[in-house]
Amino acid sequence: ILNVEQSPQSLHVQEGDSTNFTCSFPSSNFYALHWYRWETAKSPEALFVMTLNGDEKKKGRISATLNTKEGYSYLYIKGSQPEDSATYLCASNQAGTALIFGKGTTLSVSS
Amino acid sequence: GAVVSQHPSWVICKSGTSVKIECRSLDFQATTMFWYRQFPKQSLMLMATSNEGSKATYEQGVEKDKFLINHASLTLSTLTVTSAHPEDSSFYICSARDFGTSSSSYEQYFGPGTRLTVT
User: Minimal Cα–Cα distance from B111 to chain A, Å?
Assistant: First the structure.
């Protein structure tokens, strides 16, 4: 059974701090790794989809890296802002299978 | 990006009644839609995969006669929780895959979810 783990479960940072979270997944038969940003009462918003070992993607102050050989991905937020407060979901799948989600990391940024 | 709507956003029903939840892709055609359920402090758990014009594929442990899924068009899938019981109270969320372009074939777009409470 594919198991995706995220850490930490939650964290609280001050505005302007930089932070990062971890997603670990089984590396065998890897197909794709997804990061979503989920604000309360809204739809999860796709941030990144990564497929190749060594992939690095960036969207504004948010970036992500992928290591498929060791089965982990990092999400980085530079200079956190209150509007970054959300739950960040990681999901992975093997070829031909559905996405398996982690429990998410809930980020709270205070001003 | 692609938009997926879900209706209703929340519903309270009595035990024994049935509840229908709609999932619509608003600006793209979705040949495949997915239904997830999330219990408190747990991850999104896939319930079933819905393909337009064919029967849904259910995950192990999900009763197909209790959770009826219909995907009659390329923009609409429905989930009906039949004879709901308090243990069915959960957060149900759908997603849709846009196969319009090859670059988006990896991506899934989510609706905002439905909070179901069965009393």
Answer: 5
Q: Which tens digits make up the pLDDT trace of A55-79?
A: 999 999 999 999 999 999 999 999 9
Low-confidence ranges of chain B (pLDDT < 70): 1, 99-105
Helices (H) and strands (E) in chain A, counts: 0, 11
- In sequence order, the 6+-apart residues with CB closer than 8 A to the CB of B84 are B13, B15, B16, B17, B18, B19, B116, B118
- Section A21-31 average pLDDT: 93
Cβ neighbours of residue A46 under 8 Å, at least 6 residues apart? A34, A35, A36, B1, B107, B108, B109
Q: What is the pLDDT of residue A67?
A: 97
pLDDT given at position B102: 46
Quick one: pLDDT at residue B1?
Answer: 67
With CA atoms as reference, the chain A residue closest to B93 would be A43
CB contact, 8 Å: B29 with chain A? no
* Residue indicated by tokens 């009659």: B72
Name chain B contacts of A44, Cβ cutoff 8 Å: 93, 110
Chain centre to alpha carbon of residue B53: 16
> Chain B contact for A77, CB < 8 A?
no
Which residues on A lie below 8 Å from B108 (Cβ)?
A: 34, 46, 99
B50 at interface of A, judged by CB pairs closer than 8 A: no
